[in-house]
Each structure stands twice: as C-alpha cells, then as structure tokens.
Amino acid sequence: MPFAHVTGWGMYVPEPVLTNDDISKLVDTNDQWIRDRTGIRERRIARENEFPSTLGVEAAVKALQVANLAPTELDLIICTSSSPEYIFPATACIIQDQIGATKAGAFDLQAACTGFIFAVNMAAQAIRSGSIKNALVVGTEVLSRFVNWKDRGTCILFGDGAGAFVLQASDIPGGIMSAVMHSDGSGADTLTLPGGGSHFPASELTIHEGKHFVHMDGKEVFRFATRVMGRAVLEALEQVKMTTDDIHCIIPHQANYRIIETAAKYLKMPLEKFVINVDRYGNTSTASIPIATVEAIQNGRLKSGDKVVFVGFGGGLTWGAMVVEWTGPIPAKKQIHPEQYRLFARLRSFVRRAIRYIEGFFSRRSL
Ligand SMILES: CC(C)(COP(=O)(O)OP(=O)(O)OC[C@H]1O[C@@H](n2cnc3c(N)ncnc32)[C@H](O)[C@@H]1OP(=O)(O)O)[C@@H](O)C(=O)NCCC(=O)NCCS
C-alpha cells in the first residue's frame, strides 16, 4: 500500500491589515480586550477583487512549486472553505480551471474550521487506496464578507487567507500516519451561517435578520474547543502507539490563544511546542493550519523527519487530528514551473468557453 506524503505547501494572505485599533473604530472594543481574550493583534482582509479562488490559486501554485509538480499531474483537488465562492459550483473547480489541472477531479468539502484536516485525510485515503497518485488540498477563506462588522463578539476574530498542501504517493514509509475525525450535529447552532441555504433562502427578511452573517455562541464554542482539542491529539497519537514525547510540534487551528494554552495544559506540554500565529492573522478557519505550517517550515520549526500533530475544531460541530511524519518534496531531476501553466490555463479556459458558446449557438439554430 503506498504512503501519502505532504510534498508541497504554500500560503497566501491579502496585503491589507486590519488592526484591533481599526476595529475599535467600528465597534465598542479595544486592543487590550481583544489581545487578552483572544491573542489576536491583527488580521488580513481581502481586497474587493480577491475571492477564495484567487487566494486559493496563489497558495496552490506555491505548493506545486515546492512539490515541483505540474498541475497537469494532479488527480484530485479538494477545496475546503467556510466562505466558499458560491453554494455551487465548488470553489475547487474554479481553482482547477485557473491552475490548469486538466485531469483532476475537483470538489469542495465542508467541515467548517476542521475542513483542512478532514480534506487532507480524504486525499491521503485516496492515495493510500492506490486509486490516485497526486492530490492538492486547499483551505481558503474570505470570511470578512460574512462577518457582521457591528457584532463585537465575532468581528474581532476572523481573517482572510489561504493555504495549500500537495500530497503524493510514495513507497517510502512516512507521511500521514493517522487521523481522527469527529462530528456532533447536536451543536450545529453553536456556530453557523444560517442564511442563503435552502433552509433560509435569501430574502429581505433573512437580510434584515442578519442571517447571512456568522452567528456564534462564543462561550459555548470556547468550552467545546477546550474539551475536544487535547483528546483528539491523544486519540490520533494512540492510533500509532505514540505519546506527546514523540512529537516535535503541534500545529493547531488558530482560533484563540487561550484555547491553545488550555490544550497545552491538558496535554502537559510546554506551549513552545505549539505553533501559534493567531496574533497576526486571526482565525482564518480552514486556512489556519496550512498557513501556520508554512510559517513553521520557514522558521525552521518543522523539518524533514519531524513528527507533527495537526488538530482542529469548528462548526458542525466538528473536530479532528492527524499525526504526520514530515518528509518534503520527492527529489526530481527536472525543474517544473507550475506558475507558467497559469497562462496556458487562462487560454484553455477562454477557448473552452468560446467553443461552448459556438456549439450552443449552432445547436440552438438547428432546433
Ligand atoms: C468570543 C470570545 C473571545 C468572547 O470572550 P468571552 O470571555 O467569552 O467574553 P463574553 O462573551 O463572556 O463577554 C464578557 C464581557 O465582555 C464583553 N465583550 C464581548 N465582546 C467584546 C469585545 N469585542 N470588546 C469588548 N468587550 C466585549 C461582553 O459584552 C461581556 O460584557 P459584560 O460582562 O458586561 O456582559 C470567546 O468566547 C471565544 O474566543 N470563544 C471561542 C470563539 C471561537 O474560537 N470561534 C471559532 C471557532 S472555529
């Protein structure tokens, strides 16, 4: 059975920075309160012409560059987002078109902030089954468009950004070693974006009631997160008969510094073993784990051969963790330039749209 290795990684965050002081001009809050309760200092906000797909494409191309893999070699793309481009089509399909992944099947996976762990696990399972060789997983968010900028309980928390992993099959042991996935739909209303779906289709009333914004019971989510995080880590370690002593670092979902601190205490681990960057990006939901991973690699905190645990939680309710033996790119003789495929992808997309238009024109005339 092949092993599923993470061979590429990339991140992208929009340039505009929104500080706590900026938010204090919108709602009754202040920098000290936000830092004390969440650890967040600032977050990135997408520009008007940036979308989950544009952010996701940037992160994906970087991940392919690290993996030295052409987008045409991808078999599968899973995108996970709490702020997808549309209900359908899947954001994954837009990314597939824009990077030129001509033979990849693409779909979205919805598990709120736990999405990246679930998606990496699904991609790894597809590789381990032998049905595919190369997969791309993208977590991408423009949550700033779903945040009520008049609600101080939520608008302080979220930020925009994207992260991506490339996963590849290899006979060399390592890569994704174990994973646990959990859900508890009885807590569905704890963290939700209720409007715009088929339960509350968009109407003047749903807009008036603010149903198109993130709704959250902050205290309940906090309690839930602190309860499940440590347990999920231990469960994932137990599957491979490992303990916290065997791992080099934990990369948790970046929601709140205090939640991570509580998990560290539960696991009796020093906080230094946790990769934390929530102070600079806030909660970027599905993108937070890959963004933190890329920074951990850049800072030398995660190296080839290290054992790392990813752990996340979020709406659903959902939570999960995975143990990964970090390996890195598969050595190759030839240098691939995935970014060069973007122009080809744009051309191809244009030509396919044109053909579809011409075919439609003639088939209408012949009816
Ligand atoms: C949202 C969160 C930071 C709020 O912190 P908290 O300690 O639970 O705060 P509370 O809601 O109990 O509010 C405490 C007080 O601060 C006030 N307050 C709430 N938000 C505030 C803000 N942004 N600025 C200033 N005061 C604020 C409340 O009105 C309340 O005032 P009161 O005591 O006079 O009634 C915290 O609950 C949290 O982080 N929860 C988890 C959220 C999360 O991670 N979600 C994503 C999961 S993927």
Question: Keywords, please?
Answer:
single chain; 367 residues; alpha/beta; 5-stranded mixed beta sheet; globular; binds coenzyme A
Give structural notes.
This protein is α/β, with parallel strands linked by helices and 367 residues long. The chain has one domain: Peroxisomal Thiolase, Chain A, domain 1 (3-Layer(aba) Sandwich). It is built from eleven helices and 13 strands. The chain has helices at 20-23, 31-38, 52-67, 91-99, 115-128, 204-208, 218-239, 257-266, 278-281, 288-298, 341-366; strands spanning 3-12, 17-19, 42-44, 76-80, 105-109, 134-141, 161-170, 175-183, 191-192, 215-216, 249-252, 307-314, 318-325. The strands form four sheets. It has a five-stranded mixed beta sheet, sandwiched between helices. It has a four-stranded mixed beta sheet with strand order 8-13-12-11. A two-stranded antiparallel ribbon has the order 2-3. Strand 4 (76-80), helix 4 (91-99) and strand 5 form a beta-alpha-beta unit. The protein is globular and about 65 Å long. It binds coenzyme A (COA).
